[in-house]
Write a structure and sequence with these properties.
169 residues; alpha/beta; Rossmann fold; 6 helices; 41% helix; globular; binds 4'-phosphopantetheine
Length: 169
């Protein structure tokens, strides 16, 4: 029987409309999609992992078949332990390709985990969580680039004097 489950991994710090587009498209192709947030002990983000998970749950709730989880360690181990056979990732531009291909090939070599790439909606091809944070940190408008629930939380983090918040990333 075909296992129609996939995982969409990432840092999601925070989830953007580009992520959401990939999650929504995966959710139409698979019975169950897991958005898996990487826990990276060596790198603190703007949002703590529980808050990233909360935002992801909020913005994917209406899709109906997206669950949100976190993982530490290798993605292949996370998928193997749960019997999830496929990773779905968005490709924004050629610049994403080299590294994504390398990871996909390594993951396949390690456990046979497959990776399917989705061509990102061109509306979001320039979009990344890092740029969103940088623009928001300096008071720039990131409306339309992140879900409204994320926008509200980002605004809550921004110093009204527009000084940089103490985010080490
Ligand atoms: O949103 P990001 O930071 O681009 O996502 C990168 C992520 C989490 C997908 C990638 O770093 C990953 O899978 N990390 C888990 C550790 C791992 O499996 N490393 C080996 C990859 S071949």
């Amino acid at each position: 029987m075909t296992d129609r489950r996939c995982v969409c991994p990432g840092s999601f710090d925070p989830v953007t409309n580009g992520h959401l587009d990939v999650l929504a498209r995966a959710s139409r192709l698979y019975d169950e999609v897991t958005a898996a947030v990487l826990v990276n002990p060596g790198k603190s983000g703007l949002f703590e992992v529980p808050e990233r998970i909360e935002m992801l749950r909020e913005v994917t709730a209406e899709l109906g078949n997206v669950r949100v989880d976190s993982f530490e360690g290798l993605l292949v181990d996370y998928c193997r332990e749960r019997g999830i056979p496929v990773v779905v990732k968005g490709l924004r531009a050629v610049s994403d390709f080299d590294y994504e291909l390398q990871m996909a090939q390594m993951n396949h070599r390690l456990t046979g985990l497959e990776t399917f790439f989705v061509a990102t909606n061109p509306e979001y091809s320039f979009l990344s969580s890092s740029l969103v944070k940088e623009v928001a940190r300096w008071g720039g408008d990131v409306g339309g680039l992140v879900p409204d629930a994320v926008l509200a939380r980002l605004r809550g983090r921004i110093d009204p004097t527009r000084r940089q918040t103490p985010d080490p990333t």
